[in-house]
Amino acid sequence: MSTVAIRNVHKSYGALPVIHCVSLDISDGEFVALVGPSGCGKSTLLRMIAGLEDITAGDIVIADRVVNDIAPKDRDIAMVFQNYALYPHMNVRQNMGFALRQRKISRDEIDRRVMNAARILGLEQLLDRKPRALSGGQRQRVAMGRAIVRNPNVFLFDEPLSNLDAKLRVQMRSELKELHQRLGVTTVYVTHDQIEAMTLADRVVVMNGGIVEQMGPPLELYDKPMSLFVAAFIGSPPMNFLEGSLNTPNALILDDGTEVALPAPVAGNGRTTIGVRPEHLFLTDAGWPAVVSVIEPTGSETQITARLGDYVIRVLIRGRTDVQPGETIHVSAKPADIHVFDTASGRRRETVTT
């Protein structure tokens, strides 16, 4: 079973802690994405799984074997880096088969594995080219092919698409997902792009400041973020936030006096922040008044940026609109689409059960 278990892992550089007691179980064949802003610890965690970074405390278990003291080459993993790391003097065939030659595998077996990976990745016509004669997407396919030929227990990806342009990233995302569905190899994927994480992964792990903020299926994180950080990080465009005080368990009074009905009675009191995704706001004749500042049409959708009291909000509507900058609009949201958080702790507020 190609499982990965991260058990109470800590990492410090001298007196500076960067990973704080992270635990995570990854099932055989699962695709897990580690996502978060720069410096959150996701790449450090991946490098500890690979054996490229030492662990300060805790255990990493791959296929039921503790690998803390096992060299990277003996962990039966294959890693794809952000910068491709291809040998410029070797052609595609030689790059893909290099690790196998180092392991003294027979030439026939190397040729068989390289050709199989080339067919999967559409590289058959490029096997005799050097990396300088390849596009960015083709180089990334070669890097993935070099990982595939090793038949590893686990694939590790460290922001593999970040050097590609936007159109190619979308294409490669689709190819990566299809590749995982075909091979079924356990995969740990690091990215700062939450769209990549949402579209690729079976489960997303959101990291912040060296801790795990929340983990779960992508749509679970989207539908029920457990903290302000996750709510702000997951979703594009990002969630709108409005802060105020609870008037009753069912209503929030913003600082400008606007009253917002809550989806259910909320426990507690004090400063409260509500979040509404741009796509869950809609234009209405009687709602929260906001002054339009920017209109961004994309054809199928229109994004409206407006000022609601002291807050800048974004409204994403299907299709097109005649709304103009400077105009006052009224927006509203269904109570079920309003997320409620404690402002001080940043945690999701629980509703009152009756």
TrEMBL record:
InterPro entries: AAA+_ATPase, ABC_transporter-like_ATP-bd, ABC_transporter-like_CS, ABC_transpr_MalK-like, ABC_transpr_MalK/UgpC-like, Mo/tungstate-bd_C_term_dom, NA-bd_OB-fold, P-loop_NTPase. Its main location: membrane. Keywords: ATP-binding, Nucleotide-binding, Transport. It is found in: Cell inner membrane. The keyword Protein transport does not apply. Belongs to the ABC transporter superfamily. This is Sugar ABC transporter ATP-binding protein. It comes from Nitratireductor aestuarii.
